[in-house]
Amino acid sequence: MEKQPLYEGKAKQIYATDKAEEVLVYYRDDATAFNGEKKGTILNKGILNNRISSFFFRLLTEQGIPNHFISMPSDREMLVKSLKILQVEVVVRNIAAGSLAKRIGWEEGRKLPAPVVELYYKNDELGDPLINHFHIQALRLATAEQVAAMEQSALKINDILTGYLKEKDIELIDFKLEFGLYQGQVILGDEISPDTCRFWDSKTGEKLDKDRFRRDLGKVEDAYKEVLHRLTGEVL
Ligand code: C5P
Asked: Can you give the residue ranges of the SAICAR synthetase/ADE2 N-terminal domain (predicted)?
């Protein structure tokens, strides 16, 4: 009998392991957008996102950012620390795009004077609404200290990733992070991939991320492959 996942997400499954403090993440090729309204598959996305996320988590570990990554046992599997995920999504933005561009009436591509951190309620039924510190306290999603830890870590991660990607001719427009509790500490979980970040080619402005799927721009798989290639030199 096939092993049942502990949790089934929109693009990943989580499986128990022999150790209570570790779980296995399985990356699938499924792609969704607009809170699951648009569905599709991106060939080899699971492999590409697992490799790209593993690369970023290793980089962040080297830079002293606590995260859930342990190892990448296979092309679609990531072994991670088992976290109690906080139901808050943290978005960091350097350049206006997507929902922020709409909300504040800026054209996409306009640089923000300083990084903007946003908090969203991780709740599929509600479509992940934008919330603030007051909502988080009212909903008891995290303590004020945990929110501060997430925001500080998110800004540090932004510095590390922005600098690294610039050398690869990739502009980090914005990205989403999820954090969880592990032995009482707030640590980074989930993934960092073209599904959860906006990457634009620094020279041409070409989109190298999930907006190609969301907006039907074509060459979706090629964009993900290009990101992996620029980061690691690997060709898939
Ligand atoms: O759609 P929006 O502009 O708010 O997205 C900001 C960033 O967060 C984008 O990089 C997007 O890929 C990411 N995001 C995500 N998961 C969500 C919402 C946004 O990864 N549920």
From this structure: 6-230
Domains and CATH numbers, the chain: 7-81 (3.30.200.20), 84-219 (3.30.470.20)
Return d(Cα 198, Cα 173) in angstroms, integer: 5
The mean pLDDT of 71-88, rounded to a whole number, is 98
DSSP bridge partners of 131: 119
- pLDDT score for 3: 84
Say if ligand 1 is within 6 A of residue 9 CB.
no
Report H helices in 27-170. Answer: 45-62, 98-104, 133-139, 144-167
**Whether residue 108 has its Cβ less than 6 Å from ligand 1:** no
Choosing from 196, 198, 207 the residue with most ligand 1 atoms within 8 A of its CB, the one to mutate for a pocket test is 196
Model-level pTM?
A: 0.98
